[in-house]
Every structure is written in C-alpha cells, then in structure tokens.
Specification:
By secondary structure, the protein is of the alpha/beta class. The strands form 3 sheets. Strands 7-1-8-9 form a 4-stranded antiparallel beta sheet. The protein contains 9 helices and 9 strands.
C-alpha cells in the first residue's frame, strides 16, 4: 500500500472520500485541498459505459471551453508557403514544413498542438510514430487537418480542446487552472461534460456516464454526482 504524504493525508481529512458531491461543491473542495506552489490544472475524468474497442462506441470530439484552459498553447502549423502568413497572423508559434518535419524526426516535440492541411498530410503522416503516442497527430475530426489554418489556430488558442476515451473507457481532460474563479471552472467543466453526453453512441447500452472525478495536478480525486451535471 502506498504511504500517504503529509499533504495528501491533510487533504483527505478535509472531505469525505466516500461521498459524492455536486459539481459546485467538488470545485470548492479541489480548490481547498490543492496546495502546490504552481498554478495547478483542474482535471476531469469521465468514466463512460462504452467499449472503446468497438469502433461504433468510440467517443471523441472537440469542445471550446468558455474561459479557455488557462494554459499557453504552443501551436505548430505545417503548411505550404502560401499559407504561412495566414498561420502567423492567427498567432501560430511555429510555421513551416520541411524544416519542422526534419526537426520532429530528430526528436523535437516542444509543442501542444499540430495543425496541417490535406495537401501535405502525406509528409506529415511519416511523423505518426513520433506524434501519435504524444497525442499530437493532426486529425480531420478534430479540425487540425484543414485548409482554414488561420481559424484552426484561433480556435485552439481560444480554448478549444479535443478529447477521446482511452482503452478503459475514460475521458481525461484539463478544463481550467485552480486560480480560476469557481464559476468559470464550473462553466468549463459543464461544457465538456455536456458535449460528451451529446456524443453518446447509439450502440452504448445501460448507464452512459458511470462516474465523474474532479482533481487538480497533485490532489486526490473528488467524486461528482453525474446527475447534477448531465440532467
């Protein structure tokens, strides 16, 4: 059994680990038990009643959080020269093609999102083994393979995140920073949860949202009553 640190033990003493809370109360607890020197992320774990091994039960999508994530998102746009100015004007941090492909093949992945266009996907596809495991591979379904690279950059910078269930049927996402006002954390969390609810596969049987946990980077999880958010 893992030995509890003093901080974790103190955190556990401030709330009932067995209880299920409303989203509002859970946010208050997470803010109260987070004692990091840095501004922690507020993370949400949504366990779904789906079997992600079945293609017709894969849940994935994008959502624009009303108040952004609080993170500085570093965006790389891999595009043809005629699109470079558009990408830069929209706020992309890195713009180019062959030079960056070579750089990534050499191990550079100091970025959060990669946006590209259909005409260069053949080149970008060669980076799959590097970008894929890091969740950086562009995908038309998440709007990161598009001719409208400027809009894609703006969307990402303004708080658009993508999510998908892992092999255990859980969606993990960061929805805010602990320093956010409680109301803003709640609006962001609700936006994500309700988007996930709308994406319920027709083939998913039984209880769709099985559990929701809220935590910060270093805090234990606080269970949220799904009906308080999904109803």
């Amino acid at each position: 059994m893992t030995k509890l640190t003093k901080k974790r033990k103190a955190a556990f003493e401030r709330y009932d680990q067995e209880a299920v809370y409303s989203l509002t109360d859970a946010i208050g607890i997470v803010k109260d038990i987070t004692e990091t020197k840095f501004d922690s992320s507020v993370d949400i774990d949504i366990r779904l009643g789906v079997d992600p091994r079945k293609a017709n039960q894969m849940v994935r999508g994008t959502v624009t959080l009303p108040h952004g994530t609080g993170k500085t998102i570093r965006v790389l746009v891999l595009c043809t020269p005629d699109k470079e100015e558009e990408a830069q004007a929209a706020g992309a941090d890195y713009v180019g093609l062959d030079d960056y492909i070579t750089k990534i093949k050499g191990g550079w992945t100091d970025i959060d999102v990669v946006i590209t266009m259909p005409s260069v996907m053949a080149k970008v596809g060669a980076l799959g083994k590097i970008l894929g495991p890091r969740g950086l591979m562009p995908n038309p379904k998440t709007g990161t393979v598009t001719m409208d690279v400027g809009k894609a950059v703006q969307d990402v910078k303004s708080g658009k995140i993508d999510f998908k269930v892992d092999k255990f049927g859980i969606i993990h996402a960061s929805v805010a920073k602990v320093s956010f006002e409680p109301g803003k954390i709640e609006e962001n969390a609700r936006e994500l949860i309700q988007t996930v609810v709308k994406l319920k596969p027709a083939s998913a049987k039984g209880n769709y949202v099985k559990s929701i946990y809220l935590s910060s980077t270093m805090s234990p999880g606080v269970q949220v009553e799904p009906k308080s958010v999904t109803a």
